[in-house]
Amino acid sequence: MNPTPPLRYSADDLCAFAEALLLAAGVRADIASDVAEVLLEGDLMGHDTHGLALLSPYLGEITRGQMTPSGEPTRLSGRAAAELWDGHRLPGPWLVRRGLDRATEMALNYGSGSVVIRCSHHIACLAAFLPRVTERGLAVLLMCSDPGTASVAPHGGKRAVFTPDPLAVGIPTETTPILIDISASLATNAMSNRLARQGQRFEFPWLLDGGGNPTDDPSVFDANPPGTILPLGGLEAGHKGTGLALLVEMLTGGLAGVHRADAVQGWGATVFMYCVDPDAFGGRTAFARQMEWIAQACRSNPARPGFSEVRVPGDRAWARRAAQREDGVGLQAEILPALQPWAERFGIAVPQPF
Asked: Which long-range contacts (CB under 8 A, 24 or more apart) does 203-210 make?
């Protein structure tokens, strides 16, 4: 039996709807526009746990006074090509766009540039930010962690220390960019929460229960003691994911100077972003040629049994992005019902499907 295909909506209608809700909640106009665009971009790329599914929780944070609807970040320290900002719990998608713009400016002037933001609110889908940099011929590295929570145990342990600690890399080529969006854990908090709400399980035992036993059941997070997510590499090679998490923690909380050692409260993010201009090294043309070669070498690689083709990270997201712009965005069934109460509260019409 084939599953029912998702209803499809105009990307422009969804973006306008999201922006209208944010404006009605009191978010400043430029911030509301950026947040709506970044959330939609997550859905366009297929990262639907980190797209418009986040809008209802964001609106809740705003109305409770836990997400700042307007203001500016504060530059706390810096040098010519590196800065630390306090984000004052402003919406993360807007802050990250501003930070990447600043890091890009540094890279164009000095070859590379880094911005770290502490006290940001949640930043949504990391991959959604990458094309903003790669379309200018620059490469970008983006990482974040949340000092207010923990859900991932280190390799060999059973008590949470890390968040999934995502990292993303955007690499320009001669054709479509390489867009890497991964985490230091086998699963994310958002997907774990979605499956638990729906009474479903993971396809594989990517979690540990409170006793440290592998399981595919996300309900273990509500047990006492709570379960955790396994680091990337799983039971056998989780030291690799733990090492990657420590790298993310160093570049986010370590450089921010305020993080897990400080009992930070509330849902949020500490963010590291780094932009580099290949023209400061071997040149953008040469860089793009090298990366195009390696991308095509991957795509043309003979597929092993069970695979029809070999893809480069970002291939599916880039194709899905273009297709959904043209044919409509397929939303998870629970997203618009979660936004319906907000639409009624603010008197805003919900988009209709094609």
From this structure: 206/230, 206/234, 208/153, 208/158, 210/158
Contact 216, 205 (CB under 8 A): yes
Task: Give CA–CA dist 126/179, Å, rounded.
Answer: 10
Residues 6+ apart with CB under 8 A from 232: 182, 183, 184, 185, 186, 238, 240, 241, 244
Q: Tell me how many domains the chain contains.
A: 2
pLDDT attached to residue 1:
47
| β-bridge partners, 229 | 152, 207
pLDDT digits (tens, 9 = 90+) for 16-32: 999 999 999 999 999 99
Contact 165, 300 (CB under 8 A): no
**In which residue are the tokens 């086998």 written?**
186
Rounded CA gap, 241 and 249, in Å? 12
Q: Which residues contact 1 (CB under 8 A, 6 or more apart)?
A: none
In a domain, 168, yes or no: yes
In a shared domain, residues 297 and 336: yes
Structure tokens at 156: 């060999």
Phi, psi of 338 (to 5 degrees): -70, -25
Contact 260, 181 (CB under 8 A): no
Residue 2 lies in a domain: no
Query: Are 178 and 201 found together in one domain?
Result: no
pLDDT digits (tens, 9 = 90+) for 287-308: 999 999 999 999 999 999 999 9
Structure tokens at 213: 């036993």
Distance CA 354, CA 350 (A): 13
Indicate whether 216 and 132 sit together in one domain. Answer: no
**Looking at the predicted structure, is the pLDDT value of residue 342 above 50?**
yes
SS3 content of the chain, % helix, strand, coil (to 5): 45, 15, 40
